[in-house]
Design goal:
Layout (H helix, E strand, L loop, with lengths): L9 H5 L1 E2 L13 E3 L10 E8 L5 E3 L5 E3 L5 E6 L2 E2 L4 E4 L7 E5 L3 E8 L7 E10 L23 E7 L6 H14 L4 E5 L6 H9 L4 E3 L13 H17 L4 E5 L7 H8 L2 H5 L2 E5 L3 H13 L6 E3 L6 H11 L6 H5 L1 H8 L13
Parallel strand pairs: 1-6, 6-10, 12-15, 12-16, 13-14, 13-15, 16-17
Antiparallel strand pairs: 2-11, 3-6, 3-11, 4-5, 7-8, 8-10, 9-10, 9-11
Length: 354
């Protein structure tokens, strides 16, 4: 049953729409359903902020951060979250209040949290946004057209030991170095939780970006592997159709996260990688990452991430892994690209910087 509480549609019109909703055509919103128990991951929820907790800002669809205030109306996506440094959360609405589990615009129920985390920001779910047919609007309704896998473009994967290992900086720096070397490059965030940080980082470095929200997922945690694979195929093929010769693909979280582990063990994503750059926070993590990758028949061409910020850690990691340790400045360099990345290219570009 679709209802039109007195608060609608004014609240919807003044609400802050989060990054995860950026592809939604807001003119499609025709109603509000209070039957929230039937909600599923990706559904759009109109909420009122009740109490400010850990997330004090909302990342907007316009790709800027907006400070939150009690009483603000926000449009978010229901979603799961896996973040060892923050929250473990489920895509359910089973109480009068729910939690803001990610600042990019994901709401749900926090099931566990890192001990250093503040309590989550609390939200009152007003209802699910519905379309002209009375059906809950889901971001999957606005996904890019499905495309088959593209076998021509070069794909470089960036994996990491953990959250905050330096994957995003490594990926965007690699993209920037490829661009400076004359390659047409695109950045793709294939898994993770919807947020504009990784997206903006690629574009700041000169690489047009796409991410899993473009293929209809607010988060990829607990999504079936075949859905993530199909999304990956579409993202890479879309980047290629828009002119990319090389696609840098960042995979979220660490190698032991369940979707990342499944990707590495057996998947079309793993098989499509022409090369892997591994990000690590320290030498031990670098060695562990190389060991884990080698166990599944993969070998990174280099190590980057936070470990590269310390000369001592760089020396340790290089000694124990036998891999080059590349800082972000190294990755910016056309000379580095020529030495480590150009040999992996599937085809010669039209122009490469001397």
């Amino acid at each position: 049953m679709t209802q039109f509480p007195q608060i609608y549609p004014a609240a919807c019109e003044i609400a802050k729409w989060a990054f995860t909703t950026r592809r939604v055509d807001r003119s499609d919103v025709r109603g509000l359903s209070t039957q929230t128990k039937t909600a599923r991951a990706g559904d759009l929820i109109l909420c009122e902020i009740v109490e400010i907790g850990h997330h004090k800002k909302i990342q907007l669809a316009e790709r800027r951060a907006s400070a939150s205030y009690p009483g603000d109306f926000v449009v978010l996506c229901l979603g799961d979250r896996y973040a060892p440094d923050q929250f473990l959360a489920s895509a359910v609405i089973d109480d009068d209040l729910i939690d803001l589990v990610a600042g990019g615009g994901v709401a749900g129920r926090v099931d566990a949290a890192h001990v250093r985390m503040d309590d989550p920001t609390r939200l009152k779910p007003i209802g699910l946004l519905t379309n002209a047919q009375g059906r809950a609007i889901n971001i999957a309704d606005y996904a890019l057209p499905t495309l088959p896998a593209n076998d021509q473009v070069t794909v470089i994967g960036v994996f990491g030991a953990s959250m905050n290992s330096g994957k995003t900086t490594a990926a965007s720096s690699l993209g920037h170095g490829l661009m400076r070397s004359g390659y047409a490059v695109a950045g793709v965030k294939a898994t993770g939780t919807g947020a504009f940080g990784d997206f903006n980082s690629f574009e700041d470095g000169g690489a047009p970006a796409l991410d899993f929200t473009d293929v209809g997922m607010a988060t990829t945690y607990r999504m079936p592997l075949e859905v993530i694979e199909a999304g990956f195929d579409t993202l890479v093929a879309t980047a290629a159709a828009r002119g990319a010769e090389v696609v840098v693909v960042e995979i979220a979280d660490g190698v032991f996260q369940q979707e990342t582990r499944a990707i590495l063990q057996s998947s079309r994503i793993r098989d499509r990688m022409d090369g892997i750059l591994f990000a690590a926070p320290d030498a031990l993590s670098a060695l562990g990452g190389v060991t884990v990758l080698e166990q599944v028949g993969l070998s990174p061409f280099a190590i980057s991430g936070m470990v590269s910020c310390s000369p001592l850690a760089t020396a340790e990691a290089g000694e124990v892994t036998g891999r080059p340790i590349l800082s972000r400045e190294d990755l910016w360099s056309p000379e580095t690209i020529a030495q480590y990345v150009t040999p992996m290219m599937r085809r010669e570009p039209e122009y490469v910087a001397a």
